[in-house]
Design goal:
It is a single chain. This protein has 10 helices and 9 strands. It is an alpha/beta fold. The strands form 3 sheets. It has a 4-stranded parallel β-sheet with strand order 4-7-8-9. The protein is globular, with a radius of gyration of 20 Å.
């Protein structure tokens, strides 16, 4: 069973190399249902969000709706990860220990070179309260020095960053972290101030080009002037 952006775009190539099922879209509910079907020798045609070989041809089942309430999902099974191995590698190569954290899924923007086979053009966010609770759990159990927010776009939802900052402050939690964002989003009122106050150290932005002609051809939706201004403010 394979689940990835590449597998979802090229499932037949995966079938040629021993993969039986490719999960299309989000994997949690699809994988859970598929495993149940296989264990009970039932038909996988009833499982939404799959691609597989059936009767000698590729079969695509109905797409599964995206999960809207990310807070309802259980937290990752951090206890199954060999954290100490990661800690030692981070310390050896970087001098500090960082853990990845995902606060959102997807991206609503339409840059024409971007592949989005898993989440599509939808953007779904966990609540700031849910994210801060996970941060508290990770700090208590694993004492990371730093967090890497691996969202395509961090804090896009209006007011999210500001509320996140307030919650960290109220709970007296001090963290260091890095994010990915867009220059136009960083220019929104108080966003960079709230990011800095909450502990952000590094912001990766998809500047892509210093040519407005190229940005427009990419359907990036940003202006060269915004790149300069966001850089100055950072």
């Amino acid at each position: 069973i394979a689940s990835s952006s590449d597998a979802a775009d090229h499932y037949e190539k995966y079938f040629e190399h021993g993969v039986d099922y490719v999960i299309r879209g989000e994997g949690e509910e699809t994988l859970k249902q598929l495993l149940s079907v296989l264990e009970n020798n039932q038909n996988a045609l009833q499982v939404q969000g799959l691609a597989f070989q059936h009767a000698g041809k590729t079969t695509i089942t109905q797409s599964r709706p995206v999960i809207r309430d990310l807070d309802a999902l259980p937290l990752p099974a951090w206890d199954l990860v060999e954290i100490d191995s990661y800690r030692q590698i981070w310390l050896k190569h970087h001098g500090y220990f960082s853990l990845n954290l995902a606060t959102t899924r997807g991206c609503p923007f339409k840059c024409n070179w971007c592949a989005k086979p898993i989440y599509g053009n939808r953007y779904t966010s966990r609540s700031p309260q849910h994210v801060v609770s996970e941060i508290e759990l990770l700090r208590k159990n694993y004492s990371p020095d730093h967090f890497w927010m691996c969202d395509d776009i961090f804090g896009l939802k209006p007011g999210w960053v500001q509320e996140f900052n307030t919650l960290l402050s109220d709970r007296k939690i001090k963290i260091r972290y890095k994010i990915q964002s867009r220059v136009d989003l960083l220019l929104q009122e108080n966003t960079l101030d709230a990011l800095a106050q909450s502990g952000v150290e590094t912001i990766w932005v998809g500047a892509e080009s210093g040519s407005q002609k190229v940005l427009d051809a990419m359907d990036k939706g940003t202006k060269v002037e915004e790149i300069y201004e966001a850089t100055r403010l950072m």
